[in-house]
Design brief:
The protein is built from ten helices and no strands. By secondary structure, the protein is an all-alpha fold.
């Protein structure tokens, strides 16, 4: 398997040269920007996107069950990414595909020191797992997350550290883990988050004060007044 895509006459390698060739003609500042974005920036952006989504969800009026389910779906986002990377470990060891710059000359490699195997791309796996899991939790934020994942995959090929099929494989692996295990994660995490919501010291993680006031399980305004009227009628 080590010789996978070793020939420069296949579409995978041709596309690698086409995308990476953009780096040769680009200004230095653009290459450095893509290098930072592809290596660190998109992962940071994905984390901030998840935090933003959580902050929005916890402030939305909802019952205890709904709030716990929503936050549980967000907790699954980083867990899905971590699990997908663990699944990738034996895949990389089995395929043993060298980095493209080791088998092909003339590539513009923006990040040096990559000595591990190329297939499947960890970055593509992580970002797409997070994007798809976030889509399950919230479609609006999830679409942005998936877009970030696609951009990240392009950056990895542009940087000369991955073949296009490394990225596609990462997208497939991240999507499969995020989608297939999402129901199990929801089943396990929702009761935990519901218990957290009921605790006095950590309930803010699941629901903010405004969400509790407007939630379906909150006291309905006017209910106590109506009860007092009935009591007065009985007393009369």
């Amino acid at each position: 398997m080590a010789g996978l895509a070793a020939s420069g006459s296949n579409p995978d390698v041709d596309l690698l040269y086409d995308i990476n060739g953009l780096a040769k003609d680009a200004p230095h500042w653009l290459d450095r920007t893509v290098e930072f974005v592809g290596e660190y920036g998109l992962l940071l952006a994905m984390v901030l996107l998840v935090i933003w989504c959580w902050w929005t969800v916890r402030r939305r009026p909802a019952s205890a069950e709904e709030a716990a389910s929503s936050v549980a779906a967000l907790v699954w986002v980083p867990l899905a990414a971590g699990l997908a990377v663990l699944v990738n470990v034996p895949i990389r060891g089995f395929v043993e595909r060298p980095r493209p710059f080791l088998d092909h000359q003339g590539l513009e490699v923006l990040v040096s020191g990559k000595t591990d195997y190329s297939f499947v791309s960890d970055h593509a796996t992580i970002t797409m797992a997070m994007g798809v899991a976030l889509f399950v939790a919230n479609r609006r934020f999830g679409l942005v997350g998936i877009g970030l994942g696609l951009l990240g995959g392009f950056c990895r090929v542009y940087m000369g550290v991955h073949y296009p099929t490394d990225v596609v494989g990462g997208f497939a692996l991240g999507t499969a883990v995020a989608l297939l295990l999402s129901p199990v994660a929801s089943m396990l995490l929702t009761p935990v988050l519901k218990a957290v919501d009921g605790s006095g010291w950590a309930g803010w993680v699941v629901r903010g004060r405004s969400a509790r006031v407007g939630g379906a399980d909150a006291v309905v305004p006017g209910a106590r007044v109506e009860a007092s009227v009935e009591e007065r009628d009985l007393a009369a």
